[in-house]
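Quick log. Single chain, no ligands specified.
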Amino acid sequence: MDSVPGLLRIGELSRRVGVSDHVLRAWENRYGLLSPVRSAGGFRLYSEHDERRVRRMQAELAKGLSAAQAARVALADELPPETGLPELRAVPANPAAMDGAAAAFGAALDAMDEPGAHGPLDQLLNEFTVETVLRDVVIPYLHDLGERVARGEAGIGQEHFASHVIRGRLAGLARGWGGGQGPLAVLACPPDEHHDLALMVFGIVLARNGWRIRYLGANTPITDLLRIAADTTPAEIVLAAAVPERLTPIVAELRELASAAPVALAGAGASQSISDEVGAQLLAGDPVTEAVRLARSQAPL
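-> predicted structure:
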């Protein structure tokens, strides 16, 4: 396990300050309260500056400030940390810094150049958080590629190639996402829905926020989900659909599923009207933001 003198894994930081790791991650994602660095092995490590900001936020919360107000006070009092550790890569705050690598990543995928795509993606993951890369690079590329295919500006083969490359990288990030003691989420696409990469992104981010993932993927029968709901009592079942036609024919089955376990609908095919009709929660935003929001809903902020 990577260790650097003076820097802490999140579990140790949680123990020191008396705040659960779920809440610490939520404070980091929502308010930018923490500024982790990455070890050579990819672990996020926290400094005494992070600990000091958490303690200041706790003090301001005790005074009656809201979490957002307390975070602003804590951040205003703290200068950017200087780690002095060249082997560690800080998580940058400026999204514009990723533009060159993101463009190279997209160009390589468009050219069906698999080795050429891995290099820029590795660079992005070394310099930015996983959440940032998925939200600001991977998902926008997939959305843009889908639109180009619909307009006839890109071919189905090109879409399949890019999906294959991205799926392989997402599978690496998803490794071990079924472990731990956090809430269980069951993730699936309804029958005849085969676009599941955004759902994989959702699961990766949810797992990084402490949840356990049971991933069923594309084209999942609702009867299977009903059995799993009965056997595992998940905290949430998330169904993602790219078009409404994947959900509207199975409203009755979805209503039955929502009576057995909490259900959320996601993707461009989900709508508030369908969600209301079946008694499900609507996840209307991008998969990274919605995963963080769902994780935060289970944390006592």
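The two ends are 30 Å apart (CA to CA).
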